[in-house]
Every structure is written in C-alpha cells, then in structure tokens.
Amino acid sequence: MTAICKLTTATPNNLMSEFEFRKKRPYASPKLIARTINDSPRSSGTPISQGNPPASQTAEPIVKDNEQLKAQDMERRANGHALYQEVFFFCTVPNVGDVRGTGCIYVETVVDQNSGCAFAKVYAAKHAMNSADVLFTRVLPFFRRQGFTIRNIHTPRKSEYFGLVPLHPFESLLATSHIEHLSTGSPGAPHNYLCLQFYRFLQKNFFQPILRKKFSFSLEELQKELDAFIDAYNSLRLSHSGLGKSASSAASKFPFDL
Asked: Which member of 126, 132, 204, 226 has the lowest number of beta carbons within 10 Å of its beta carbon?
C-alpha cells in the first residue's frame, strides 16, 4: 500500500486571494508598530507572533491566580477548616489488644474537607474515649503545627460522638477546644462520604497489602505502619492542595495513590 500525499502549490489564484486578504486588513503605521514593540516587556531578539497575545496580557492572569490562591489560603486559615469523623469496623482477629481470644479492630477516621488531609487510628473497641483520643493525639497536634484552625467537626449522631458535655469525653474536648459539633444525620446536612472514601482507600492501599505480609501483629505495630503511611499521604496532600507552608501547586483529586 502506498501513501498518497497531496501537495498544494502556490497558484495565481492563491496568490491573488492572499493579496486581497492582506489588502483588506487595517493599516498599521510604523509608529504604532514601534510603540507596540517598545511597550512589550519581551526580551530583545524575540520574534513577535501575530497569533499570540503580548507577554503583558499573558502574565497578568498568572499573577491574579497566585494572588487568588493566597487570598483563599488566608481566608481558610482565618475562618477555620471543616472536618468529618467516623469509625468503621475493619475485621475480627484473635488476640487483639489486652483481651485474649477473638477480638475486633475498628478504624477511627478523620478527614479535612479543605485540605484533604486525613487521619486514622486503630482500636480494639469503639467508644467516646477513642473518638476523642484520635483528635487529641493525631488531629489537633497536626493542625497546630500547620497553623490551621478547626471551625467545626461533622460526625454521625451516635453515642461515640454525642452526649452530655460535662460527662462525654468527645463533647468535652470539642467544647474546650472551641470547635463546633455538627451532625451528618440532620436534615439537609452533608453526608459523611469523605470518611467512607478514605476508609476504602486505606483498605485497598494499606490494610490489604500489610496483612498479606504478616499474619501476626499487635495494634501498636499496626499503628506505627499506619502512621508512616498517613504521614506520607498528608505530605502529598499539602504539596498538591497549595495549603502547605512550602506548597504552591494546584489542588488534586481526593484520594490519590501514594
């Protein structure tokens, strides 16, 4: 099979149409051309392309985008971040924690809606103390280091999260930290899909691979592996979301693979 190429040659009709097109274009005086070249911030020796806008027009939107990102970052820091929290049942294994015999593993998850950063901690049971523990040991120290403030936390309306403020550990921690507590089960409230999406991400990218490597482990060993995984995950989230102290790139989809 031979490829057939059609060559277009310059015929008198083509030349005439090009001549008529140039003749119909508006006249630009030499002074106007010289003024345009002098006003352009390009470097000397750079050819001017008629199809591209001047450099002054292309540089201005970039500056505006950077200023807009900085303004949004300052607004988020001032108004605070919105967090979502929920606990999930992971699996049943023998000899978990301090109780001999068959036990359960629960994963407490917390996701920041603004930056996409997430946190998780494994427990042998689910109750209010564990719900407050993941905030006290993982979430609040991270936000203090980054200079972020927490505006509110959305949780399901369960006994692990809701109760009397003086007696309930989770409610007392939020009250002393000046964080508003909202329910995801209220009419019109957003669904807690971020925690579910992050938990499924952990199942696929962390729990399944690590359980294939070792069959015997303790919660402390599992938590150390989980902390290292989440530290790397949050570092990437900050660098891609533009909220980190040294981050400058745009936001990416959540979640993403390490």
From this structure: 204
